[in-house]
Amino acid sequence: MCGEQTQNQSVKLHWFGPFGEHAVNASWIAVQELEKLGLGDGVDLYVYEIPVEYQTVQRLIPALWKKHSPQLVVHVGVSGMATTVTLEKCGHNVGYKGLDNCRFCPGSQCCVEGGPECIDSIIDTDAVCKRVSTLGLDVTVTISKDAGRYLCDFTYYTSLYQSHGRSAFVHVPPLGKPYTAEQLGRALQAIIEEMLDVLEHSEGKINCRHEH
């Protein structure tokens, strides 16, 4: 019989700073609202801002994973093209040509030289999307397989590579297009709670199979 989990779950949450036309990044607004709502007493939440800089991402992501060793890392970014809250299934290694806030772009145009072209999250994003969509939130949640080949995608791939897939990425639309800060915060709360539940149950099945 499998024992119940008693220790707190650990979640590390990242949002992105201002860039381009996004003087106020909606991902930061959504994270602020999530912090007000919380994730319950059983979850330790660590929140960090990620600068829109390739080299900082390459240095910071491994350092934060080493420091906290969380059950899950969730990255939250804004997409000017998004009209829904979007769960990204995977991160991509190559095709990074856009300049960051420091006017820098990797010469190799990739995240990890020699790394796989694409890495999928171990989180079943389809299941999370379906479950959140049944909660009656006034926010539409969708799935994507292309995080955009800029700092969002670059960060996601770097995190997936570092964590062996134990990462997730949520894209939010710009504030007011169409959702309020409160709507984004509630959606983010529901998404992360469902991600933790899906992750816990999938790992519980694995542990049970190992015990028999």
TrEMBL record:
Catalytic activity: Release of an N-terminal pyroglutamyl group from a polypeptide, the second amino acid generally not being Pro
Pfam families in the cross-refs: Peptidase_C15
Gene Ontology BP terms: proteolysis
Enzyme class: hydrolase
Similarity-based family: Belongs to the peptidase C15 family.
Quaternary structure and partners: Monomer.
Record protein name field: Pyroglutamyl-peptidase I
